[in-house]
């Protein structure tokens, strides 16, 4: 029995969503000169609150231990940049943004999104906790302050830089341990007639497609529409629209305004998605309990494939040294006995080793030299981009393998 309580409604957490045992911090890549040192492992046991149905991972590590020197740079992915560009174009038109508007983004990373508003002559400000990433954004000409976001930061930023006509938060809500303080900050920083948009992986899709490898320590929450509506409503913010996106295996983009306002009016898409979540059972703890066994199916299928490949003398490498890769590999116990190396585009990861399993990370060119029989796509959310970049492996008979939602060769 756990002593943890829900970080939104303070209900005691009693119901397991998934228990993946112990795992390392997924972004704590190991340097070559540290291979003889121990790594800390922490519980990966996510719970669901039976009152508000927020799925959450009790904090094992403080955010300032994970996000100060952060190795993830959004601009590495060309498909993510295109996603950001399209959003900026749509938002500028939809909300009539111009040179007198203020656009602010929380967890703005390296300026991957704000650069498109900046290029359109719209004043921007990024709020990014990782100092190393904020420094890169500033060097690119995207004004960025390095702070963790909450009500105190919102008050300081509003005083120094004004309220936000468009306030953005992409893939940050899941990273926040103190949700009430964070959402209170959103409320304070949003201009009276401003619009807030946030994107996050959709819990419904996570469960439907067995994407358990999205459960790791940097993600404190796993979010559905019904739960996010409850959290925002408690702080005076009302959702008026929602869009379903293909990013990160299936995400939501929510649109919100101050609850005191009646415009923009709510769209039919909100009612439709609420109904779908209810039919799936996202307000029934039994639905969550049924998910708990599904990661084992992936583990068994992937290990069966890798054992067969090794027995046949085939070579296998991985692609994508992302957080989800670290979760999957550690949960399945896959090390260099199965994967020769993992290729990744990010120079900040190359030359290091995957947390826990200690598989070396190489630049993509290593694949051309090794000519493996199989490339296991660990960043499955970018599979189309990766398969296009590496399409030439078919010249030597190489094949791609996807592990989620089940192991399949393609």
Brief descriptors of the model:
410 residues, 33% helix, Rossmann fold, single chain, alpha/beta, six-stranded mixed beta sheet
Explain what you see.
- With 410 residues, the chain is α/β, with parallel strands linked by helices.
- The protein folds into two domains: 66-290, Vaccinia Virus protein VP39 (Rossmann fold); 298-409, Rossmann fold (3-Layer(aba) Sandwich), CATH 3.40.50.
- Helix 5 (151-161) packs parallel to helix 6.
- The strands form three sheets. The chain has a seven-stranded mixed β-sheet with strand order 6-5-4-7-8-11-10. It has a six-stranded mixed β-sheet with strand order 14-13-12-15-16-17.
- It has helices at 63-66, 78-94, 114-119, 131-139, 151-161, 179-189, 203-208, 225-233, 268-280, 285-291, 294-311, 323-332, 365-370, 383-389, and strands at 15-23, 42-48, 55-56, 103-106, 124-127, 144-145, 164-170, 190-201, 221-222, 237-245, 251-258, 316-319, 342-343, 361-362, 374-377, 399-402, 408-409.
- It starts with 14 loop residues before the first strand and ends with a strand.
- InterPro entries: Methyltransf_Zn-bd_dom_put, Methyltransf_Zn-bd_dom_put_sf, MeTrfase_14, SAM-dependent_MTases_sf.
- Residues 246-405 form the C-methyltransferase domain.
- It comes from Halochromatium glycolicum.
Ends distance: 43 Å
Q: How many domains make up the 3D coordinates?
A: 2
The total beta strand count reads 17
Main β-sheet, in a few words? Answer: 7 strands, mixed
Helix tally equals 14
Q: What fraction strand?
A: 15-25%
